[in-house]
Specification:
It catalyses: beta-D-fructose 6-phosphate + ATP = beta-D-fructose 1,6-bisphosphate + ADP + H(+). There is one protein chain. It is built from 26 helices and 27 strands. It is an alpha/beta fold. An 8-stranded mixed β-sheet has the order 3-2-1-4-5-10-11-27, with helices on both faces. It has a 7-stranded mixed β-sheet with strand order 14-13-12-15-16-23-24, with helices on both faces. Strands 7-8-6-9 form a 4-stranded parallel β-sheet, sandwiched between helices. Strand 23 and strand 24 form a beta hairpin. The protein is globular and about 90 Å long.
């Protein structure tokens, strides 16, 4: 790490504080607001104070930077308390004409120098970030001019000779190239899916067609992902205009859907939708077309600014917190020679990207669209955009299979219900049918397989499953070893050549038992795949299991309400128990999303000394203006320090200072409609799993039958860093702790540093891994990243 003389081996808190002591940094939000900006402002402020820097908040974006005075205020730790759950930006944002002129930037430079600020963190869209970069390149010249005008002295200009800039992309459109997800995108998808779910019920009552217009003037990301997550009948995005004559095509398809018994049609259109000639396609044009040609009762709903509003989703809160923390590190390590960077996430790892490289590719997309090079525009958006587009086209409309294959695949759900299971089953069934396979579904897990509760399904049998929570097939925790003979008998009877098991730890353990029984039963020498689906996120072989995003959001919403009740009654500490078995993922991530004071988990062992420190920490907190506390406890984090024990301890130690209440969240964490992430993730896992199984079936088909007994014929599909990988269950056995039903290594443990830092604990950051600088070019965007 150049610039600060910090060894990259680790960041000792003392060294950090010495490096940070002379720093003054400012944070501003600019451009259109996005949910999660407050979480980012909070993380930048607290991380800045944590490393010993002075932190300033700039109100009203660049306008406040130009106006100065009251708009630039120094922040303390409590300035950003209780804002993580608020939408929008508490420091305000404004579109600013003055900053686009040199004299505006001259005023801005003067205001920063007055406060000794030479580090700027800008949270905004591509326009705001480009503006920041111009400001940085002009900085030297602006200071010279201020010296000439005798507004500042030569010494001052030498002292503040260089401006460091770091950007965080806040934009609900996700239109910034090179970054996986921008702040606000996931929350905007939450708003859109809430509306689609609500509209679906009324459309079904009246057999209506709905045209939904979502935001995205130049970028179709929101439209694309919400179409994929809702199974919309037709989609218009700017990057890929429909072929000429699309009107006939579309009406024919909508008519077909109705004649097959569907009671509604959903058409999603991005506000920037255009045809092949660059002429806008409006939602009203589409509506009139459907009414005129098909006579369907049709309504238009324009979502508008609803999409920018509301509370940020858990993903946006955690993303923004991580990015805010990394932004401060990037400023700390910046030198006059490092390019201005944006902080982004790649998989679950922070990275830094040169700002101007991202801006360049973002401009290239627009240029490609203007010049009608649409295929290229989709490629430049990055691999995951292209993936989404291809999968949407595959699943939206049944194409008859070229020819029937001889293979049959059975799908079952195992373990506890998790949101997104149904999305995975739906896409697996449909892709299987496209491939020409016979698709069976099994009710009630391995038990149902042993009892012969198996039936063949068609394309339309899974319509409408995407948004349904829980498990439509029914799920059981029974393991195969209790009924092995009968399972084998049914595999033989139905001639099942592949098993797709969607479920939690039992699904993985069950498939392992089947594989280990292959020596006894030839019938089990078939292809098997596990799609990890559990709210606990404790299946080895993947960073995320299906359903954990929905569960974190459910727990977070409950904690938001609990926190609100605590601010009404002063000096109260809530102890909240979460699910997750021995796995602390749910409580840790929920803790970050709600700004908890502590989260007790099994993987991060704690003693009575730690509990004592936590109680003292809360006692100190009660002496400030923030008179409430929130402590999360994972259900199996400790044999003896139970929720009841914590309650008694906190109550007696806090006597006269605060009182305590218990909340056990229970099964609400398993319920609810799946979040956009889980609908999409389930859809993609279903597709990728069946495509992998099809390949394996062909490879192992000999002499009229499938015979698969190699390790790689039974795998867990998962997302690792950013790539989809298939890990043999026999390999994963080595890295599994079966007693506690956990993978031995878990990536999310490094999130706990952030949880503790943001809760104001004095911890060392030696474990903190700084993001590396990565370049963004046409080539890097085309790399297959799984999602």
């Amino acid at each position: 790490m150049a610039g600060t003389g910090l060894g990259s081996a680790g960041l000792d808190l003392e060294k950090l504080r010495m490096a940070g002591a002379g720093l003054a940094l400012a944070v501003l939000t600019s451009g259109g607001d996005a949910q999660g900006m407050n979480a980012a402002v909070r993380a930048v402020t607290r991380m800045g104070i944590y490393i010993g820097a002075k932190v300033f908040l700039i109100y009203e974006g660049y306008e406040g930077l130009v106006e100065g005075e009251e708009n630039i205020k120094q922040a303390n730790w409590l300035s950003v308390s209780n804002i993580i759950q608020l939408g929008g930006t508490i420091i305000g944002s404004a579109r600013c004409k003055a900053f686009t002129t040199r004299e505006g930037r001259l005023k801005a430079a003067y205001n920063l120098v007055q406060h000794g600020i030479t580090n700027l963190c800008v949270i905004g869209g591509d326009g705001s970030l480009t503006g920041a970069n111009i400001f940085r390149t002009e900085w030297g010249g602006l200071l010279e001019e201020l010296v000439k005008e005798e507004k500042i002295t030569e010494e001052v200009s030498k002292k503040y000779s260089h401006l460091n800039i770091v950007g965080l992309v806040g934009s609900i459109d996700n239109d910034f190239c090179g970054t996986d997800m921008t702040i606000g995108t996931d929350s905007a998808l939450h708003r859109i899916m809430e509306v689609i779910d609500a509209i679906t019920t009324t459309a079904q009552s009246h057999q209506r067609t709905f045209v939904l217009e979502v935001m995205g003037r130049h970028c179709g990301y929101l439209a694309l992902v919400s179409a994929l997550a809702s199974g919309a009948d037709w989609l218009f995005i700017p990057e890929s205009p429909p072929e000429d004559g699309w009107e006939d095509f579309m009406c024919e398809r909508l008519g077909e859907a109705r004649s097959r018994g569907s009671r509604l049609n959903i058409i999603i259109i991005a506000e920037g939708a255009i045809d092949r000639n660059g002429k806008p396609i409006t939602s009203n044009y589409v509506k009139d077309l459907v009414v005129k040609r098909l006579g369907f009762d049709t309504r238009v709903t324009v979502l508008g600014h609803v999409q920018r509003g509301g509370t940020p989703s858990a993903f946006d809160r955690v993303l923004s917190s991580k990015m805010g923390m990394e932004a401060v590190m990037a400023l700390l390590e910046a030198t006059p020679d490092t390019p201005a960077c944006v902080v982004s996430l790649s998989g679950n790892q922070s990275v830094r990207l040169p700002l101007m490289e991202c801006v360049q590719v973002t401009k290239d997309v627009q240029k490609a669209m203007d010049e009608k090079r649409f295929d290229e525009a989709i490629q430049l958006r990055g691999r995951s955009f292209e993936n989404n587009w291809n999968i949407y086209k595959l699943l939206a409309h049944q194409k008859p299979a070229q020819d029937k294959s001889n293979f049959s695949i059975a799908i079952l759900n195992v373990g506890a219900p998790a949101a997104g299971m149904n999305a995975a089953v739906r896409s697996a069934v449909r892709i299987g049918i496209c491939q020409g396979h016979t698709m069976y579904v099994v009710n009630d897990g391995f038990e149902g397989l042993s009892k012969g509760q198996i039936r063949e399904v068609g394309w339309h049998d899974v319509a409408g499953w995407l948004g349904r929570g829980g498990s439509m097939l029914g799920t059981k925790r029974t393991l195969p070893k209790t009924c092995m003979e009968k399972i084998v008998e049914n595999v033989r009877k139905f001639n099942i050549q592949a098993l797709l098991v969607v479920g939690g730890f039992e699904a993985y353990e069950g498939v392992l038992q089947l594989v280990e029984a292959r020596g006894q039963y030839d019938e089990l020498c078939i292809i098997m795949c596990v799609i990890p689906a559990t709210i606990s996120n404790n299946v080895p072989g993947t960073d995320f299991s299906l359903g954990s995003d929905t569960a974190v959001n459910a727990a977070m919403e409950s904690c938001d309400r609990i926190k609100q009740s605590a601010s009404g009654t002063k000096r109260r500490v809530f102890i909240v128990e979460t699910m997750g078995g021995y796995c602390g993922y749910l409580s840790t991530v929920t803790g970050i999303a709600v700004g908890a004071d502590a989260a007790y988990v099994y993987e991060d062992p704690f003693t009575i000394h730690d509990l004592k420190a936590n109680v003292e920490h809360l006692t100190d907190k009660m002496k400030t203006d923030i008179q409430r506390g929130l402590v999360l406890r994972n259900e199996k984090c400790h044999d003896h320090y139970t929720t009841e024990f914590l309650y008694n301890l906190y109550s007696s130690e806090g006597k006269g200072i605060f009182d305590c209440r218990i909340n056990v969240l229970g099964h609400l964490q398993q319920g609810g409609a799946p979040t956009p992430f889980d609908r999409n993730y389930g859809t993609k896992l279903g597709v990728k799993a069946v495509l992998w199984m099809s390949e394996k079936l062909k490879e192992t088909y000999r002499k009229g039958r499938v015979f698969a007994n190699s390790a790689d014929s039974a795998c867990v599909i998962g997302l690792r860093r950013k790539t989809v990988s298939f890990s043999p269950v026999t390999e994963l056995k080595k890295v599994t702790d079966f007693e506690h039903r956990l993978p031995k290594e878990q990536w999310w443990l490094n999130l706990r540093l952030m949880l503790k830092m943001l809760a104001h604990y004095q911890i060392s950051l030696t474990e903190y891994v700084s993001g590396k600088m990565e370049h963004v070019t046409r080539r890097t965007l085309s790399i297959e990243k799984g999602f």
